[in-house]
Specification:
Radius of gyration of chain A: 21 Å
Number of strands of chain C: 7
Chains: A alpha+beta, B alpha/beta, C alpha/beta
Largest sheet of chain A: 4 strands, mixed
Oligomer: heterotrimer
Shape of chain C: globular
Structural class of chain C: alpha/beta
Radius of gyration of chain C: 17 Å
Shape of chain A: globular
Number of strands of chain A: 9
Distance between the termini of chain A: 32 Å
Structural class of chain A: alpha+beta
CATH architecture of chain C: 3-Layer(aba) Sandwich
Strand content of chain C: 5-15%
Order of helices and strands of chain C: HEHEEHEHEHEE
Strand content of chain A: 5-15%
Number of domains of chain C: 1
Strand order of the largest sheet of chain A: 2-1-8-9
Number of helices of chain C: 5
Order of helices and strands of chain A: EEHHHHHEEHHHHHHEEEHHEEH
């Protein structure tokens, strides 16, 4: 493994293939220091890209949504935009605006979820409880609008399923007021709590150059000052008419990532208010053909975790030829693997959480390898506790 | 839009000597067809130009068409799309590999993020990526049968018995 | 010292005490077998102040060796299969399984995809299914309550007759119920 900062080599898998356990991560350690890191994704591999080829265009709306329960709307939106591009159809302005509102509400829910989870990883359980209690407000709003707290299924090919009435708009405004106030409180905590700062400042620092070199995206990169955001770089939906300000920070560390996400929440609240006050009138759907013309389309949207890219190819039939999904977390994994080296094992839970990886927390298993000994398997819970104890 | 058109013009200019052909399927997108042997040079050119970032590597399976009487058999192929994005502009390097010669050099030395994408390409499509610094599976289970590439059209899934054993 | 042989009446009392302890304070372990996280965040939400299941004595903790109930989500991917089986095997008897979400019932939207097994009951005897995509936290708590209610009466949950459009209209509990040792 090279110590050269420009080269990036991940140590190759197991010493003894026969003894390999299905760990999600592998850390090689020397004493307390991490000397190497590797990853196994695929715990949640369901075969969706293949499954998409056997389902109709409409069925795939529901399949793509369920790639991730936390950012389901943005997946469905990216898919829908790709298919609409192929069909040469543009959804009506009101539908685009509603899609944008749902997307930003989802961003709020995702960032608050992350805030709680990240706090929990660091041992700040009260912050976890508070943020998840407050997050119920945004889930309530999503449920009032769509009928479900998760998997809102707002999108139809060609438009949206439901409207936002003035009464609903008033409820949303009320909810946003509460969320705004609560997030100001969280920003204060993040900036003032000593223990919290101790576990986040200076951890996982990534310069802008390194972020660019490693291909980091989303809030992880923006915390290092890399001002990329698809909503501004390549506006979609109604982001040209209702733009957002790109939130960045300069510290590039875990603390900065907290700040960026909370600030993005404020921006989301602001832009939702703006759209609600200027909701374009008109239809909710446009006509779509059942058979989508042959061709290829690429749609890129800004998921809460960064750029989400969909490549959709049609062969002219009622089922896709190919749907390729490149999730933002895949880009950011490389940054973790590279940044882990030289840090302490106790920092790993927080470092990993910093990129907001999109999978469930309780069952990741970790393989820790000291020197030439066989690796010992740690549960995620054990690693998390280890980190908390270390910094006590 | 002007900056997008400008960016596409710039990348077209630098890829001119290498590209077999260019195509503009959408206003914001440029496709450049590259020979497999020229891939590494093309990627290096993009990196030297600091043209955007590598957003994805997409694999497309083109199975062999049904044989036609009297004509030579056409082999199936895998097309690999190196998708670079700069702002709203998208530049794709497309290269096609016949099944019998599905080999590419790794670009992860130039672009570390490519490693995960190439790893996925290898196990989903069976493209051999020379120099890829990892072995084993990234996404598929350890006991996944060798030589079985899920995203090739020839793979149609397991039948009921095999799955629930 | 008298050998610690327990006669049948003491066994009965002990069983009642254990049962009472289990019903009033079941320890649950959560396992994600490849779900999209939708169900998992709803399960986690049951711990948060709005629902707060801990006040009912339901404790979600990390080790299978101390768990009475396995709350499982997901369509069981090939990678998760062995880990799920191992987790189940590590739980002491008597143990119960709650499958949460459509994926846990049948694979959900992923039914037929190559890397999943399908419903959790393809692998384990499931006592309670909580349908939904994802189910609301209230639904999940109800599922746990159904399990506890059945335990109180000393037997496993009964199939619930439900008539609805579409399917055959019957919501069953685990198909391998009969051959599972209590």
């Amino acid at each position: 493994m090279s110590a050269d900062t420009n080269k990036f080599v991940i140590p190759i898998g197991p010493q003894h293939p026969a003894l390999k356990e299905p760990a999600n991560f592998e850390f090689w350690v020397d004493g307390e220091t991490v000397t190497g890191a590797s990853v196994r994704l695929g715990y949640v591999h369901r075969g969706i890209e293949k499954g998409a080829e056997a389902r109709t265009w409409v069925q795939n709306l529901y399949l793509m949504e369920r790639i991730c329960g936390i950012c389901s709307h943005v997946h469905a939106t990216a898919y829908t935009l790709g298919v609409e591009k192929l069909a040469g159809v543009e959804a009506p302005p009101r539908a685009q605006a509603i899609r944008q509102i749902m997307g930003e509400l989802e961003r709020i829910h995702s960032h608050m979820l992350w805030l709680g989870v990240a706090a929990h990883e660091g041992g700040f359980d009260s912050l976890f409880m508070y943020s998840w209690r407050d997050r119920e407000t945004v889930m309530d709003l999503l449920e009032k609008i769509s009928g479900n707290k998760v998997h809102y299924s707002a999108n139809l090919l060609g438009g949206v399923k439901f409207d936002i009435t003035p009464e609903l708009a008033a409820e949303i405004h009320k909810g946003l007021e509460f969320l705004d106030e609560r997030n100001r409180f969280y920003l204060k905590v993040v900036n003032q709590d000593e223990t919290f700062i101790g576990r986040t400042r200076g951890i996982g620092t990534m310069t802008a150059e390194r972020a660019n070199f490693l291909g980091a995206i989303g809030p992880t990169a923006r915390a290092s000052g890399v001002a990329h955001d698809i909503r501004v770089d390549a506006p979609y939906l109604k982001y040209s008419e209702f733009p957002i300000k790109v939130e960045t920070h300069t510290s590039g560390d875990l603390h900065g990532r907290f700040i960026v996400r909370i600030n993005e929440t404020f921006e989301s609240i602001r832009v939702i208010r703006e759209i609600l006050d200027h909701l374009p009138p008109g239809e909710l759907t446009a006509r779509m053909p059942r058979r989508i013309p042959a061709g290829e389309a690429i749609s890129r949207v800004e998921a809460p975790r960064g750029e989400l890219l969909y490549f959709v190819a049609s062969n002219g039939s009622d089922k896709p030829e190919r749907v390729k999904v490149r999730t933002p977390s895949l880009c950011n994994w490389s940054t973790v693997l590279s940044l882990a080296i030289g840090l302490k094992l106790a920092d790993m839970p927080m470092l990993l959480t910093g990129i907001d990886p999109c999978f469930s927390c309780n069952d990741r298993s970790v393989s820790v390898k000291r020197g030439t000994q066989d690796s010992s398997m740690w549960s995620w819970e054990k690693l998390r506790q280890y980190g908390i104890e270390y910094y006590r | 839009m002007a900056s997008t058109i400008g960016a596409l013009g710039a990348v077209e200019a630098v890829l001119e000597p290498l590209a077999v052909s260019f195509n503009r399927p959408q206003p914001e997108r440029l496709d450049a067809v590259i020979r497999p042997d020229d891939l590494l040079t093309a990627v290096r050119t993009m990196v030297n130009e600091s043209w955007g970032f590598l957003s994805a590597i997409v694999g497309l399976d083109h199975p062999a068409p049904a044989p036609v009487e009297g004509e030579a058999e056409v082999e199936g192929s895998i097309e690999v799309l190196y998708t670079f994005c700069k702002g709203a502009a998208i530049a794709i390097l497309r290269t096609t590999l016949p099944y019998s010669q599905a080999v590419l050099p790794t670009i992860s030395g130039l672009l570390p993020a490519a490693m995960l994408y190439e790893w996925e390409l290898r196990e989903m499509f069976g493209v051999e990526v020379i120099g890829l610094p990892v072995t084993g599976h990234l996404i598929l289970a350890d006991d996944w049968p060798d030589g079985l590439y899920p995203l090739r059209k020839s793979f149609v899934g397991f039948n009921g018995e095999e799955k629930s054993q | 010292m008298v050998a610690q042989t327990l006669d049948s009446s003491w066994q009965g009392v002990l069983a009642k005490v254990k049962n009472w302890a289990r019903i009033n304070s079941p320890w649950a372990i959560h396992f994600n077998s490849g779900s999209c996280n939708g169900c998992d965040i709803q399960i986690l939400a049951t711990l948060t102040p709005r629902y707060d299941v801990e006040r009912f004595g339901i404790k979600l903790q990390g080790s299978p060796r101390h768990a009475d109930v396995l709350i499982c989500t997901g369509p069981v991917t090939m990678q998760a299969r062995d880990a799920l089986l191992r987790t189940y095997e590590q739980m002491p008897d008597p143990k119960f399984v709650i499958a949460v979400g459509s994926c846990g019932l049948s694979g959900g939207v992923f039914h037929g995809c190559y890397n999943i097994v399908g419903g959790i009951n393809e692998l384990l005897p499931v006592d309670v299914f909580v349908p939904g995509c994802p189910p609301r936290p209230e639904g999940i708590i109800y599922g746990v309550a159904v399990l506890l209610g059945a335990l109180k009466s000393g037997k496993r949950p009964e199939p619930i007759q439900w008539s609805g459009t579409g399917l055959d209209g019957v919501l069953h509990t685990g198909s391998k119920l009969e051959d599972h040792h209590g």
